[in-house]
Amino acid sequence: MWTWFHKLASPPHFYGLAAKMIPWFAIPGILLVAYGTYAGLFAAPADYQQGDAFRIIYVHVPAAYLSMMTYMVMAISAAIGLIWRIKLSHAVAAAAAPLGAWFTFLALITGSIWGRPMWGTWWEWGDPRLTSQLLMLFIYFGYMALRAAIDDPAKADKASGILAMVGAVNIPIIHFSVEWWSSLHQGATLVREGGPAMPVEMLYPLLMNIFGFTFIFGALLLGRIRTEVLFRERRKRWVHNLVFPDGAQA
Amino acid sequence: MSSQDTRRPGILSGFLAVIRRDVLLAWKRPGDVLNPLFFFAMVSTLFPLAIGPSPEQLRFSGPGVVWVAALLATLLSLNSLFLSDHEDGSLDQLILSPQPLPLLALAKALAHWLTTGLPLVLVSPLIAVTFQMPAGSIDIMMLTLTFGTISLSLLGSIGAALTVGLHRGTALLSLLILPLAMPILIFGARTVSLSAANDAVAAGIYLLAAYCMLALTLAPFATAAALRISNE
Asked: CB within 8 A of A220, min separation 6: which ones?
């Protein structure tokens, strides 16, 4: 099992494996999002309270969920990299951060657009989830800024890994504190006791989109890890052989 | 050799020596202690000038202003926490010393609190009075500031350890620490506002105290790990 693990963690092997895995994530992802978006925008009935405005949920909820999930991927791979000194998992963390920041931004923008018809304002400070998403975005920015500020890549990996883990401890506290601070958001509708508070025709497209977004995230992450690995190993023999297959010199 | 071993300082004396040294250094350079205090007072002065002198408004915004100013003043002083140690090589000595590094990191953070946080707590009533804060909530404010500034010194020591020796460290440090410090600001400022409105304050104080304990327990380990990485 350990040999398999070591093989997986070796950059040239992973580089090849990721290329084979990308279609397995990208194709289901695109199909799910295409179906989920169609069903969500056209087939699902309008909400009796919010009308058609609720339909932005089909982008908002997957983006918000992925903004958290990406941070978990980032923090866990940073921890694996720090504990077992696996360089590849630092590359995973580095590749995940901008994706996470982007999902957070998407969740903020769609939340803000949704807030306009619902609360009559683009931004509502009284809403804990908007505020904690904003803080999440700043945490991603801090992580990326620390990485960019350190020239030595190995040092940047370790320092930003510590920051990712400190953030992972703090994020639940931040959420709780913002929650405590004030509440105006509608309660959780998807994950709660007694099943989701949503008719099935509305729910299925949302689940499709959540899974679809996750698959697309997987494909994007794999692609970004490939680029990251290639860049980090640019002075290695195997990259040279990849670029010049006929044995020419650079 | 054996005589050297008996003279090697123990864990507690190493811990106290770091605190004594940092407090003494601050005493010899009073500017390092006074600058954050002046900054604290200046930022608090900006708000009445910016939002107007009406007493109701000042009373309403006072807790928030004092807390924001304390947060910024602590952040300003955090940059120098490990800087001079890094420059003159005493950071290497701390890392190489026989005492566990997390303990010494805790000593550095506590010394930082003694020279920055504690003076802030002691000066804060002056600011609170100018903001027309009721006398009953001033002691609550000092209590929350005590827990809050200890937590900030500990949390900030992680950021200072991560950014020591980097160019543009100050701005980066703020970017790293400010989002993580939000729970402290929220619990602190909110509790003082509740107290000024004669509301129940116990929950906020408990939460701040819990955060403080969590930071005391975990932050020194993160700071130590970060110091080893930054100084390698």
From this structure: A99
B175 → closest Cβ in A141, A165, A167: A141
User: Which residues of B fall within a CB distance of 8 Å from A167?
Assistant: 180
- Between CA A206 and CA A225 the distance in angstroms is 28
Which among B180, B230, B232 has CB closest to A167? Answer: B180
Tokens 């304390």 belong to which residue?
B70
Contact B70, B149 (CB under 8 A): yes
The Cα B208–Cα B186 span in angstroms is 9
Whole-number Cα distances in Å, B149 to A177, A190, B73, B142? 17, 39, 10, 10
Which of A146, A166, A174 is the best residue to mutate to test the B interface, defined by the most B CB atoms within 10 Å of its own CB? A166
CA A184, CA A182: separation in Å to the nearest integer? 7
Smallest CA-to-CA distance from B189 within B148, B156, B151, B153 is with B148
Find tokens 């604290």 and name the residue.
Answer: B40
Say yes or no for a CB contact (<8 Å) between B183 and A135.
Answer: no
Q: CA B207, CA B55: separation in Å to the nearest integer?
A: 30
Q: Mind telling me how many Å the CA of B179 is from chain A's nearest CA?
A: 6
C-alpha A62: how far from chain center? 10
Task: Read off the tokens for A207.
Answer: 């689940």
- Nearest-angstrom CA–CA distance, B204 and A47: 39
CA distance A73 to chain B (A): 19
Please tell me what DSSP assigns to residue A196.
-
**Interface check A75 vs B, CB under 8 A:** no
Check CB contact of B158 with chain A, cutoff 8 Å: yes
Domain boundaries of chain B, sorted by first residue: 2-230
| pTM of structure | 0.89
pLDDT digit of tens for each residue in chain A (250 aa)?
A: 667 777 777 888 888 888 999 999 999 999 999 999 888 888 887 777 777 778 888 999 999 999 999 999 999 999 999 998 888 999 999 999 999 999 999 999 998 888 888 778 888 777 778 888 999 999 999 999 999 999 888 999 999 999 999 999 988 888 888 877 764 345 555 555 555 667 777 888 899 999 999 999 999 999 999 999 999 988 888 888 888 887 666 5
